[in-house]
Amino acid sequence: MARKPKRQRRQALEQRRCEQFLLHEARLLDDGQFDDWLALFTSEAWYWVPSEPDQADPVETVSLIYDDRRLLETRVRRLASPRMYSQEPRSRTSRIVGNVTIEEGEANSCTVRSKFIMIEYRREQQRIFGGTAFHGLVQAGGRIMIAWKRIDLVNCDAPLDGITIPF
Amino acid sequence: MQSTETLASFVQPARVHRQIYSDPAIFELELQRIFGVAWIYVGHESQVKKPGDYFRSFIGRKPVVLVRDAEGKICVIHNQCAHRGSLVVANDKGNTEEFQCCYHGWTYHLDGRLKAVPLQTGYPRDFDPKNPKTAMTQMPRVQSYRGFVFASEAADGPGLEEFLGYMTTSLDDMIDRAPDGEIEVAGGVFKHAYDGNWKIYLENLCDAAHPLFTHRSSIDAAQQQSDQVHSDGSGEIAIRQMRQNGAPYSFWETQVGIWTYPNGHSYLGDYHDDAKLVAALKDPVFREYIAAMEKKKGKEETRRVLEVRRWNSNVYPNLSFMSQFQQLRVVHPIAVNRTVVHTYNFRLKGAPEQMFRNTISFANTVNGTGSLVLTDDLEIYNRIGMGLSSEGAEWIEIGRGLQSDVSDSHGGRRGQNSTSEIYIRNMLEAWLSYMKNGHAEMRVAS
After folding, report:
1. Chain B: residue nearest A161 by CA?
2. B376 and B257 within one domain
3. What is this model's ipTM?
């Protein structure tokens, strides 16, 4: 008699798994694996970088980036284009993610707050971005995905040159 | 310092010397002779609705405050303490009863007059706090055109409407599109910075020959995008615009026009009928909007307004706006190779709320710091900044369309089609006139 397959234990979205997920995401972005990064998002996900501190919503006020799933796909496809002149030469980035806390949540969905610093180097110039990230994480079939992501840059309302690499 | 003759030799019919984009001495002269003379857009009255409301802006490099005083009058005052020169107003906007310098407490009325000076007895005997020169100085001339506030540092010169000329019709179009006949600044601000000269920015806004090339990556990415993927509506607007940028040259050559007017002003027109932008009549929001317009303005006026098709309108030297999607950009020259541009949105009063949300989505697409479109424009500005800073090719070619430009009504000239560089030649004509004479020369229509 064949052994019954071991029932997969359901893991909650607890601290360590969330942290590992954020580190994985940061690594994909630093490595320029944007297609794999996009695959982390759910089919109706949104990605938001407000232009104001404490911005209430992305529909009544402009945003440095506000992508629904369709636009996020277009953004990622463009990143692969050899004719994306604002990425010629390419940026190199290095991110540190920390101060991770689970703000609210249950077994299969939660809001994770973290701090990040991203150094971007391109064409003899280095820029430093930092701020707070909020991830709306969900899991289905044991896999964690991003339902929404909000990045609050410390200098969101500063005069800025173009932002091309996602945070 | 360059002599007037040298400056004149830099601007020729079909070319311009790179030095006017890279020479710090010429930049300083521009601040005096152009930004220190011309009508400079400062802000919109809706940004200072109540007495005490203020908003910080710049005239050239000079920090100013747009403020509504206690009597409700619009003032533009120099943001500088009359005592030791400190910047007085530090917040971008707000409401206050008075302005107070944080250094020695000199306090000013909202219109800039000195109100109180602590320890007054210690100053020289002839110190007179009532002397109007001891103030946060008012700009010599401040005028509004239907809510758009301009200031000039020149005590004399053409009035605002004379300066604007036919461009008043573009400003009218901003307002006429509101069912209630009123607009207000809303939805925040983008601040773009690039390492290049301020003129480069204006020279790109009516450039109909660049999208197909510069914006290729976003055109391709948008054209390949499946419309089956989820959108909350914002991405749909963005992708439609990016695809539109991919219109073939034949479209730009036959369906888009470029018009220029005295004093360096211009607009790109006949572009983007509403059908291309918001699916027009099929779109329930647009139907609701048309209904609101017809109710307030009648069918005939509504048709007239919607048939006005202005893309970017440029008022030289620091303003560009786009009436069809209620965008407005203000150019701030920081240094010869550093420029900051602030972009704003307007809400059409009486229009469906969703119209404003579409305006925001559109702003994110064409003016957003992280936009898939604007980032490539900023790259161009930076590269021109780098390119023109080195010796070598001394002349920039701006002759496209020179042989075929034609005179037009209202004292204007237009390109035979939109890819003429006539708007650059027109701006440089105004530039040279300001630099030579300290004012723009009214062009005689040929």
Report:
1. B193
2. yes
3. 0.93
